[in-house]
Design a protein that fits this description.
By secondary structure, the chain is of the alpha/beta class. Helix content is 40%, strand content 12%.
Length: 555
């Protein structure tokens, strides 16, 4: 079931867990995050996912029913019976300082016929060319969200790197990350398996959207489809505990489109911007082209380590740190919000793949804790929908809505993909999207278990895998000496195994590491890939022995 309750905060405030659950649910209903008619999870599900006893859940449900917030239907479940008058947003809003570029855009009216309005790169300084062959420009996991034409990046390994993939005297030419040769096994993270997408349901959604468009032909909204923004708002209230309205949501051609615009709006030249020490390279590049000064924030097994940074902007992935997968604790999330309040900074929360969670307590987003409108929540459908569906979104503070719309109008005056956006709204409101997510989550849980089992069996001495209970990839730290890492990668490539090296995701030198995508591989491929890595390591050991023997012979 897709459901997120900000229970951690309530457990700290109330002595008994049943009381914490009661107040968390009551507030969610009162504030409109749980709408009238919403079916609450079963006591079994709630107890499993939130670490409660079924007795505590039952007692909380009984208290809610006694107070008139819910009603129970025998054999069906427990449903919200109270209708909030409106969905509220946090009332306090601290001022946000905009860049000079943002103020110029706000004060300039642009004609809609401007020919280059769709090119985000028009503002790139001439002394900052964007090299699409640079691996530092790789996008989240599967390269879904480009900044603009010159930010659209190849998934091929750079030629200089590919030419080095030789082992035993043979040159191995890799296929692309998205289309390896039939005998290759690519652990480079990718999108969902195409054969697990409900094509028939999606076609019905497209047909319904097309029929509605034929009847209601109106103008386009720069924010994007109102129907989809309303569906996203309802989805976030239920699954993330985020109180928001459609008016606060803006749609983009992929999440990176939105991140790039936000960066331009919020960064002045030489402003310090905090990025996680291991982070998505596209964000780093967006900061660089705006002449921001990057501050690398240290990480540990709990994610970013809060500090007293002298910065105006922070990019963070608290639900599942990218790429390590670490989950930020409630205490650290509060420390980040306190820092932003104290310094007047803005936090961009990138929630890139937390849709897929099969274990552990659901994570309360920073945005759900934000009381001063200092958090911008960014999401995307890139991990859940086909590759040609390109929609990202941002939940922004009220004061940023108009500046962001002005910037979006500059590059995208007539938003594209309106039919697909309306189809996505239909797909979500009919429940098809939620069913699709549940099916994928079950599939990924199985594949994660298979992957970690075979990796432990075959490669336990090679990689220290970071445990996870969500997402599409696993972070692995190299356990052998650093000098042998590149030799191993070449050996693995010679045996047709590919993985994503983390050096391009690091802002400073770090221990060699790999991001293993597992969601797109079946059980047989997962075992075969792990077995080949074991053979590749044996090749490395054999080569080392040969070198040692040759040294002895020369002596």
């Amino acid at each position: 079931m897709d459901f997120m309750l900000p229970l951690e905060s309530y457990i700290e405030r109330y002595r008994y867990k049943y009381a914490a659950l009661y107040h968390a649910l009551k507030d969610a209903i009162w504030e409109g995050r749980l709408e009238e008619g919403t079916r609450l999870p079963s006591s079994r599900w709630m107890a499993k996912h939130y670490g409660l006893s079924r007795g505590s859940v039952a007692e909380a449900y009984e208290m809610l029913q006694a107070d008139g917030y819910v009603h129970t239907e025998i054999g069906s479940g427990t449903y919200v019976a109270f209708a909030a008058t409106s969905v509220s947003s946090p009332t306090e809003e601290a001022p946000i300082l905009l860049s000079p570029w943002a103020r110029r855009v706000m004060s300039t009216k642009l004609p809609h016929h401007r020919q280059n309005a769709g090119r985000l790169c028009q503002v790139d300084p001439p002394n900052h060319p964007i090299d699409s062959s640079n691996p530092s420009n790789l996008n989240h996991l599967d390269n879904p969200d480009g900044l603009c034409p010159s930010f659209k990046l190849s998934n091929r390994l750079p030629e200089a790197e590919a030419s080095q993939y030789s082992f035993g005297g043979a040159i191995h030419t890799p296929g692309t990350a998205d289309a390896p040769s039939p005998s290759d096994i690519s652990f480079v993270p990718r999108r969902m398996p195409e054969d697990h997408f409900p094509d028939a349901e999606w076609r019905r959604s497209l047909s319904a959207a097309a029929a509605a468009s034929a009847v209601n032909r109106g103008g386009t909204d720069t924010k994007g489809s109102l129907e989809l923004r309303e569906a996203i708002a309802a989805h976030l209230r239920l699954t993330r505990g985020i109180r928001t309205l459609a008016e606060r949501i803006i749609l983009f051609n992929g999440s990176m489109h939105g991140i790039a615009l936000l960066t331009q709006l919020l960064i002045q030249e030489q402003d310090e911007v905090v990025l996680e020490q291991l982070c998505y390279p596209g964000i780093r590049r967006a900061v660089e082209v705006c002449d921001g000064r990057i501050v690398a924030a240290e990480l540990d097994r709990e994610g970013i380590i809060p500090d007293d940074w002298k910065a105006r902007l922070l990019f963070v992935t608290p639900a599942r740190q990218f790429p390590t997968g670490a989950v930020l604790s409630l205490q650290r999330r509060r420390e980040l919000l306190s820092w932003a309040s104290r310094t007047g900074a803005v936090i961009v929360e990138d929630d890139y793949d937390s849709e897929f969670r099969w274990g552990g307590r659901p994570i309360e987003p920073l945005k759900a804790l934000d009381t001063e409108e200092r958090v911008i929540y960014v999401g995307s459908f890139s991990k859940t929908m086909p590759e040609d569906f390109r929609v990202g979104f941002a939940v922004v503070p009220p004061s940023l809505v108009e500046p962001l719309l002005s910037a979006k109008q500059l590059y995208d005056p007539i938003p594209s993909g309106q039919l697909e956006q309306r189809a996505m709204a239909y797909f979500m409101t009919r429940g098809s999207y939620a069913r699709h997510l549940r099916r994928l989550t079950r599939l990924y849980e199985i594949r994660y278990s298979v992957f970690t089992t075979w990796m432990k069996y075959y490669t336990d001495s090679l990689f220290d895998l970071e445990p996870t209970d969500a997402g599409l990839h696993v972070f692995g730290r190299w356990r052998q000496d650093p000098a042998s890492y590149e030799v191993f990668r070449r050996a693995a490539a010679a045996r047709g195994v590919w993985m994503r090296d983390m050096k391009d995701y690091s802002l400073s030198p770090s221990v060699p590491a790999v991001s293993f995508g597992f969601s797109h591989l079946d059980e047989q491929q997962l075992e075969e890939g792990a077995r080949r890595m074991q053979l590749a390591w044996q090749d490395v050991l054999d080569l080392q022995k040969q070198g040692e023997q040759q040294d002895l012979d020369r002596r």
